[in-house]
Specification:
The protein contains 4 helices and no strands. It has 107 residues and is mainly alpha-helical. It has a domain of 73 residues. The two termini are 23 Å apart.
């Protein structure tokens, strides 16, 4: 397993996820009731906030998984499927560093 390519991909994904979380936190600020916007616009703003809240929770979960992977990547057995024990392909780990299952077991 080429760990240097994987570490670089993991670090890149960590940085992208942190940047995404920062942007989503700004978008999830409460909608102030005293702002002079129309009723429909306020409903749109509340709906967009709910969507961004869900995206923020998902991004924070992904960040936690990625950080956990970063901590455990030097352990023996890293890169093996948690279900069947087969090696997870490097391409899958690079595209989805939070993967703990091979393609067959994940589906």
């Amino acid at each position: 397993m080429d760990t240097s390519a994987f570490k670089a991909a993991l670090d890149n994904e960590l940085e992208k996820t942190r940047t995404s979380i920062t942007a989503l936190r700004e978008l999830t600020a409460p909608v102030a009731p005293d702002e002079a916007i129309g009723r429909i616009s306020r409903m749109d703003a509340i709906n967009n906030k709910a969507i961004n809240d869900a995206a923020l929770r998902k991004a924070e979960e992904k960040l936690a998984q990625l950080e956990r992977m970063r901590q455990h990547m030097d352990e023996p057995g890293y890169g093996l499927c948690k279900k069947c024990g087969a090696a997870i392909p490097m391409q899958r780990l690079i595209l989805m560093p939070q993967s703990v299952h091979c393609v067959r077991c994940a589906s």
